[in-house]
Amino acid sequence: MIRLGTAVSVLLLTLASVPAHAQPCTSVVECDDQNDCTLDDCVLLLCTHVTLGNGESCAADPCTPGVCQSGTCVAGTPEPGCRPCQTNDDCEDGSACTIDTCNELGRCERTGGEGSACDDGDPCTLDDRCANDLCAGTPLSCDDGIACTTDFCDSGTCVNQADSSSCPASGECATIECAPGDPDADGRGCVTRSASFELSECTEDDNPCTLDRCRNGSCAHDALDDPQGCLPLVPSYRRAVALRGGVDRVLNFAIDESDASGNAADAVTEDLQAIGDSLDATIRALSGRDDGASLPASAFRGLRLAATATTAQLRGRVALVWLRGTPGLVQQYLGAVSRGRRQKEIGADSARELRRNGRILLTETKALKRDVKNLQRTFSVFQR
Questions:
Q1: Would you say the pTM of this structure is higher than 0.90?
Q2: Could you report the per-residue pLDDT of 141-163, keeping only the tens digit for each?
Q3: DSSP per-residue codes, 290-351
């Protein structure tokens, strides 16, 4: 037991050693003066700071040891590789391959590094690793082994998108598309669909005595059942095709090279197009692509047909219906050229060329009409 008198003496002595400007306190924490060379305490609700002796260890900062001299910490040599900090941001080294943190001692800590696992932020890579301060992974392979699909990774998920452009081009008798799941797909994943085209018309082979129809995805040109009965119309067919090409050449001249203008230009163009349409219909009839079913019965007035008519006779009868008015269309065209010249909407040189070609067309259409009409007189000798 300390005597009351002794306690009072100690208290008075302690108070006498506390500076008059001492900081009031309730705990030691409040008395920290941030000086490693003092011992800080809270005594009788006032902070005390006792200076350490010279040579005592201290720290100028978390990474630099030192010694106390006259109450001040004199810094020594900083620790190699140590970095002082207050927050994690103070420790950031800019490398995606390290995790940088500030520990409770105020020193930077780093984990990770060369060869360590990391995350490159790309969900389409695997086994991400650090190399040369870069985090990178191996791209996820999405190749499904099917040639007609476009394979790629989207947000970590493989997508195998059908791309029909990788298949052979579709034709007039079939469409070809990429459908890997179809049981009929080939090794590339492509499927040929031709059912809807079967037996439909396909490209003419310039032989009116063949049947041009799609079969099994290709354009087939099969001989008719009546090849001998068809032969007589071959010259007429070829003449009609050549004449149709001539109309196109005159039309191109009228549009691109002549100086025709105004109403004359319109009339000449319309008449040539009408002549071309008439010849197109004639060619279709001669090649067997138009059997006349869409024509009224009155269109065939005066065109008798034998009970045992040949292919040439049957087709020639339909062709003649379309060809009847063609020479008249050519004469109408020649009249448009003449009016255009009189009205000065067509120059002399252009009119001369247009008339010259028109006279050729008139001669040829009349000859074609005569040839087709003569098909009606084809004898049965062609059926032998």
A1: no
A2: 999 999 999 999 999 999 999 99
A3: --STTS-GGGGTT----TT--HHHHHHHHHHHHHTTHHHHHHHHHHHHHHHHHTTSS-HHHH
Task: Name 69's Cβ contacts closer than 8 Å, sequence gap at least 6.
Answer: 37, 54, 55
Alpha-carbon distance of 241 to 283, in angstroms, equals: 7
Helix (H) or strand (E) holding 273: helix 262-286
Which phi and psi angles does 295 have, rounded to 5°?
-90, 145
Q: Which residues contact 379 (CB under 8 A, 6 or more apart)?
A: none
What does the block give as tokens for 323? 């060809």
89: Cα separation from own chain's centroid: 44
Tens of pLDDT, residues 26-67: 998 889 888 889 999 999 899 998 998 898 888 878 888 889
Q: Which two tokens stand for residue 370?
A: 């005569």
Give me the domains of the chain, ranges plus CATH numbers. Answer: 47-78 (no CATH), 88-139 (no CATH), 165-223 (no CATH), 227-383 (1.20.120)
